[in-house]
């Protein structure tokens, strides 16, 4: 029958402080994020040393094992993350007023000095981040909004009002610019009834709206007359077919094709010569068999082989 594990007493605040002080010496190994075999062995050795140091100076003379100390240290890190998350949620609560106070422990600063604060308060990013900003922009510190009103009248009777600037009106110079008379200036842009009819879309475009773009083509490229006469404002693109032989890549393909054809012809000639040689060889063997007096069956086999060729 297995023996039940006896429950150890709870950790006191003094034991918590002693543990965090010892872990702080080995934080470079304990908080290492690598998971290779060497790093894991280093962490085991570091926690073995932490256990020995803790049991040597244990305030309550209570010996702790390595698993208990490591589990308690992980729980402390989890508690500090929960506190940071609760503080973040209290800042974004609606209803106004200050955020709800959070009970802070004296050992929280020791934990923050050991662990990586990015895993608790979030990552910083120049574009957008999940950190809580500490700088608040006050509307009172911003520059006052100025309002300028200019009434149309003579240069001698111009009434203007400036709020928050502190500039006397006699030091402000007003300049009037004469606008040229044009149809666009006199057009009422807010009026949507321009008198446009569907039949106006079939009319020829205004010469001012047509662009005079001169297209230059290579003399060696054949261009059909419809592509030349088509206006440049047409929706269809000119059907210009450029010959493939004008590029260096096409020339290389043609050279390669000629070589392949030449090689195929050579192989065909070689095959024909081999077939002719085999026919002569079969005829010679047939004569030798007839001269030596072989059976007719052997001669028939040679004749059938000759027919197959």
Topology:
Layout (H helix, E strand, L loop, with lengths): L12 H13 L1 H4 L6 H20 L9 H26 L16 H7 L3 H4 L103 H5 L18 H45 L3 H13 L1
InterPro entries: Myb_DNA-bind_5
Organism: Aquatica leii
Subunit structure: Self-associates forming complexes of several hundred monomers.
List keywords for this structure.
309 residues; mainly alpha; 9 helices; 44% helix; Regulatory protein zeste; Myb_DNA-bind_5; transcription regulation; transcription
Summarize the structure.
The chain is mostly helical and 309 residues long. 44% of the residues lie in helices and 0% in strands.
Q: Per DSSP, what share of the residues sits in E-state strands of 2 or more residues? A: under 5%
Detail the poorly predicted runs. 136-164, 182-193, 213-221
Q: Averaged pLDDT, please?
A: 71
Percent helix range: 40-55%
Q: How many strand elements?
A: 0
The end-to-end distance, rounded to whole angstroms, is 91 Å
Specify Rg, calculated over alpha carbons: 49 Å
Number of helices: 9
Taken in chain order, the helices and strands follow as: HHHHHHHHH
| Main pleated sheet | none
Q: Describe the global form.
A: elongated
Query: What is the SS-derived class?
Result: mainly alpha
